[in-house]
Amino acid sequence: LSYPLRIIRSLVRHVKYFLGLRFEVTGWEHLQTQGPYVIISNHQSSLDVLGMMEILPDRCTMIAKKELVYAGTVGLICWLGGIVFINRKKTSDAKSVMADAAQTMLDEQIRLWVFPEGTRNQRGDLLPFKKGAFHLAVQAQVPIIPIVFSSYSNFYLRKEKQFKSGTIRLKILPKIETKGMTSDDVSSLSDKSFNVMRSAFMEISGSVTQSNGPLRH
């Protein structure tokens, strides 16, 4: 890890203890993958950054909106973390941006972390995925590793801005290969990823206190 990222990671750990959050991570073995890959995960709030720092692999960066550069501390963290910025407003050049990102991944052997829902979502389910991450993985012919954060709803009340201590489960799912795929396969790849992530989200978002008990639906 780079020196700035180590600083961020230790700061984030302090925030986590201050908030009384605990992370339970399963599936570590799926991150033992050599070379570049694309991580996709669901996106609920800025708390996601805390979870990311728990498991962020070496040489991993993020794709984020250009506007984040100017967002105070977040912008500073993005800059220190070497996050890859894309201008998501101009959809016409999204494909060329992805082509550049794919080339950068291969040239520099980096991993990219993408939120395919494209926006924060706390509705207790996943939003339909945008296709960018899948175009990127297919273009670079690198695997996709899905990572799922359990629902924050049992300790984070957004409207009331209330926050209780709680446990967040992170489940790292088996990698999905893209070798030999073309842009024709992007939709089915996206659907497959969505389905495995959604069922994992429902499974780990049950009663966190009863980790082996019946799930609440």
TrEMBL record:
<dbReference type="GO" id="GO:0003841">
    <property type="term" value="F:1-acylglycerol-3-phosphate O-acyltransferase activity"/>
</dbReference>
<dbReference type="GO" id="GO:0006654">
    <property type="term" value="P:phosphatidic acid biosynthetic process"/>
</dbReference>
<keyword id="KW-0808">Transferase</keyword>
<keyword id="KW-1133">Transmembrane helix</keyword>
<keyword id="KW-0443">Lipid metabolism</keyword>
<dbReference type="InterPro" id="IPR002123">
    <property type="entry name" value="Plipid/glycerol_acylTrfase"/>
</dbReference>
<feature type="domain" description="Phospholipid/glycerol acyltransferase">
    <location>
        <begin position="37"/>
        <end position="152"/>
    </location>
</feature>
<keyword id="KW-0472">Membrane</keyword>
<comment type="pathway">
    <text>Phospholipid metabolism; CDP-diacylglycerol biosynthesis; CDP-diacylglycerol from sn-glycerol 3-phosphate: step 2/3.</text>
</comment>
<keyword id="KW-1208">Phospholipid metabolism</keyword>
<keyword id="KW-0812">Transmembrane</keyword>
<dbReference type="InterPro" id="IPR004552">
    <property type="entry name" value="AGP_acyltrans"/>
</dbReference>
<comment type="similarity">
    <text>Belongs to the 1-acyl-sn-glycerol-3-phosphate acyltransferase family.</text>
</comment>
<comment type="function">
    <text>Converts 1-acyl-sn-glycerol-3-phosphate (lysophosphatidic acid or LPA) into 1,2-diacyl-sn-glycerol-3-phosphate (phosphatidic acid or PA) by incorporating an acyl moiety at the sn-2 position of the glycerol backbone.</text>
</comment>
<dbReference type="GO" id="GO:0016020">
    <property type="term" value="C:membrane"/>
</dbReference>
<feature type="transmembrane region" description="Helical">
    <location>
        <begin position="136"/>
        <end position="157"/>
    </location>
</feature>
<keyword id="KW-0444">Lipid biosynthesis</keyword>
<feature type="transmembrane region" description="Helical">
    <location>
        <begin position="68"/>
        <end position="86"/>
    </location>
</feature>
<keyword id="KW-0594">Phospholipid biosynthesis</keyword>
<dbReference type="Pfam" id="PF01553">
    <property type="entry name" value="Acyltransferase"/>
</dbReference>
<dbReference type="GO" id="GO:0005783">
    <property type="term" value="C:endoplasmic reticulum"/>
</dbReference>
<protein>
    <recommendedName>
        <fullName>1-acyl-sn-glycerol-3-phosphate acyltransferase</fullName>
        <ecNumber>2.3.1.51</ecNumber>
    </recommendedName>
</protein>
<keyword id="KW-0012">Acyltransferase</keyword>
